[in-house]
Amino acid sequence: MSASDHGHTPAAWTGVTIAFIGFCISGAFVVAAKPVGFWAGMVVVALGGVVGGVMRAMGMGMVPKGAGKSQTQKA
Q1: Hey, which of 22, 30, 56, 58 would disulfide with 44, CB 3.0 to 4.6 Å?
Q2: What DSSP string describes 4-73?
Q3: How many CB atoms lie within 10 A of CB 38?
């Protein structure tokens, strides 16, 4: 698994960290039986996905395979 670069980008780390914090918030409020807090944590989880996607769009994510290769045109 260490041979692949899957998820080793600032966008992935940031998105997953924010989502994990949201998961912890939701879990704590489930135990406390507070539905509003649970849904607030779920919003934070969704925010992690949005932040990761925005960071990837800004160039902090992984470059798709084949994107760096130049295309040769046939005459």
Answers
A1: 22
A2: S-TT-SHHHHHHHHHHHHHHHHHHHHHHTT-HHHHHHHHHHHHHHHHHHHHHIIIIISPPPTTSSSPPPP
A3: 17
Give me 2's structure tokens.
Answer: 């260490």
Tally the C-alpha atoms within 13 A of residue 37's C-alpha that lie toward its C-beta.
12
71, two tokens: 């295309």
User: Global pTM?
Assistant: 0.75
Distance CA 3, CA 1 (A): 5
> What per-residue string of b and e applies to 17-36 under the rule 16 or more CB within 10 Å gives b?
ebbeebeebbeebeeeeeee
